[in-house]
């Protein structure tokens, strides 16, 4: 006989897919506006010179457009990554972290660290574990951000922005 409330792994998979779709739906307009702003401000003379030299569209994208987008967008990409790690409202309001997963300590299938921290403090009262997880999450995000940014062209050529 099956599980009384349906297949729990299927519910978890569907919940994760819905959360991802909602996050994309919420974040895509902002990302597209930023990328559109970057693309509109790329220097046209480089494109003209590449076309005169016989570059095709793929070469122009790989050698001119993509490096300049990455140069400008690296800080924004880091910020987007960190905000997705801390995406509390979508998870909490959409699924509440459910369905529950007994393999993890009071965490559900769709919980992120931030929603799990909320559950640990508000619902369970395990402040020791919550503070440890919060500090480790902060350290990991800070180290990732510093390493990624310091290796980027935006950091190495910061004087171009002054």
From TrEMBL:
Claim: Nucleotidyltransferase is one of the keywords in the record: no
Record's keyword annotation contains Transport: yes
Gene Ontology terms: cellular component: maltose transport complex
Species annotation: Sporofaciens musculi
Domain ABC transmembrane type-1: 1-148
PROSITE patterns registered for this protein in UniProt: ABC_TM1
UniProt similarity note: Belongs to the binding-protein-dependent transport system permease family. MalFG subfamily.
Keywords noted in UniProt: Cell membrane, Membrane, Sugar transport, Transmembrane, Transmembrane helix, Transport
GO molecular function: ABC-type maltose transporter activity
Pfam families registered for this protein in UniProt: BPD_transp_1 (PF00528)
InterPro entries assigned to the protein according to its UniProt record, in alphabetical order: MetI-like (IPR000515), MetI-like_sf (IPR035906)
Annotated transmembrane regions: 12-33, 127-149
Functional note: Part of the ABC transporter complex MalEFGK involved in maltose/maltodextrin import. Probably responsible for the translocation of the substrate across the membrane.
Protein name: Maltose/maltodextrin transport system permease protein
Example GO BP: maltodextrin transmembrane transport
Protein localization: Cell membrane
Coiled coil: none
SUPFAM superfamilies associated with the record: MetI-like
UniProt topology in membrane: Multi-pass membrane protein
């Amino acid at each position: 006989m099956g599980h009384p409330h349906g297949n729990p792994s299927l519910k978890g998979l569907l919940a994760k897919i819905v959360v991802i779709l909602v996050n994309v739906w919420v974040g895509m307009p902002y990302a597209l506006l930023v990328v559109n702003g970057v693309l509109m401000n790329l220097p046209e003379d480089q494109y003209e010179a590449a076309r005169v030299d016989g570059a095709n569209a793929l070469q122009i994208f790989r050698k001119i457009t993509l490096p300049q987008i990455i140069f400008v967008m690296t800080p924004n990409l880091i910020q987007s990554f960190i905000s997705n790690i801390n995406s509390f409202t979508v998870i909490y309001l959409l699924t509440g972290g459910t369905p529950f997963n007994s393999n993890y300590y009071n965490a559900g299938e769709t919980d992120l660290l931030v929603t799990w921290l909320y559950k640990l403090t508000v619902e369970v009262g395990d402040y020791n574990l919550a503070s440890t997880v919060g500090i480790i999450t902060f350290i990991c995000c800070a180290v990732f951000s510093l390493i990624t940014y310091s290796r980027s062209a935006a950091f190495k050529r910061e004087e171009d922005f002054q």
